[in-house]
Amino acid sequence: MTTEVHGSTTPEVTVVVPHYGAPGPTLDVCAQLLAQRDVDLEVVVADDASPEPIVVPDGVRLVRRDVNGGFAANVNSGLAEARGALCLVLNSDMQLRDRAVADLVEAARPHQPCLAAPAITTVDGRWEESRHRWPSPLRTAVSLSRPVPHLTRIPRVRRWLLESRAVATEGPTPCDWVSGAAFMVPTPVIRSIGGLDEHFFMYGEDVDLQRRLRAAGVPSLLFRSVEMAHVGGGSTDPLRADGWSLQARWVYAERHGYARRLRAMLWGTALVNVLWNVAARAGGRKVSVRRELRHDVLRARGRTY
């Protein structure tokens, strides 16, 4: 299962690429990683029991799980095999410049130990929101209310709802948490806190990880000078994604002590949404008030629909 990468048994960076599903994107990012310049790295693909087992190229190590466990469990499987001093967790749908990993290592070196993240862009170069505040029960509840699409037209409200903050163009920008699509942390540090929490199946595990790292004195820093592009466009069923997202919100709330407040605020959101939907229906829009109320009630009870 183990293959030497770039002729080194102790690489500077281990890149863990969590994989599930179609092999194309993962193989593309592996090719980009093997072509990285000026950095000694190994690539570990963690296959989360995909229906179609992936065959990785020479120079890439493969860890295949017997049971699908979700993103956090899959990353931890790859992390267990990491030999590098630093661990870079990288989504399979990323595009990298030929020095992206080396640039991130160099930018973060004076600030270690830290969780270092690049600026995430779209493939056409547009900046994605990458720097966020810690989640709160109020912000979560408001984000699930029906008036949100109208409120987000106001820039100040949009920034508050997205929990985003300005990013420095030079040097590191301290963050509460950054996108989990690409982040690097010293391998002994992430292992010392137990890796990602496997109670999160999908979503939220990156926020929780960074909160635990912060409690251990390890900050999250975003480096605007290093860019990686996020292709996105996955084929995950929206209902399954909504269910995972809801589960993640509740796991996070329980882990960080505000589950009761979140439940109360979600009941308030249900009331706001009923009034909004009744008004919308009275105005001639096609809205199923009963169905939407059922969704909100299930969500307030911590259940999916």
TrEMBL record:
The record places domain Glycosyltransferase 2-like at 14-136
Top EC class for this record: transferase
Swiss-Prot/TrEMBL keywords:
Glycosyltransferase, Transferase
Q: Does the keyword Transferase apply?
A: yes
Q: Which GO terms describe its molecular function?
A: glycosyltransferase activity
Pfam families, A to Z:
Glycos_transf_2
According to the UniProt entry, what is the EC number of this protein?
A: 2.4.-.-
Where in the sequence is the signal peptide annotated? none
Pathway listed for it?
Cell wall biogenesis; cell wall polysaccharide biosynthesis
The record's listing under InterPro entries reads: Glyco_trans_2-like, Nucleotide-diphossugar_trans
Family, according to the entry, reads as follows: Belongs to the glycosyltransferase 2 family.
Mind telling me what this protein is named? Answer: Glycosyltransferase family 2 protein
